[in-house]
Design a protein that fits this description.
single chain; mainly alpha; 86% helix; elongated
Length: 95
Amino acid sequence: MTDLKLVGNIAQLLGSITLIYSFLPQIYKLIKLKNADGISIQYWTILTIAVACIAINLIISKINIFIQLTQWLNVVLACIVLFLTGKYQKQDNTN
């Protein structure tokens, strides 16, 4: 049983790192170009709510703190993308 738990922990680590990494190119592009053309604010709103709900459930379920922290980092990164997308879409509309 411990081997299965180790495999699960490794999968969790790889999944968390991959998901966290997936936000970085989008954040970089938004900051560098200051342009949110083609980025769906509805998608990022739904994704941000979803990852926040999962993070809340992890706290309620008393899941390992490492897993909780990586999920909350996903929430923070999703919020950053959502904020930047909203900011740069509004700037595009006012220009």
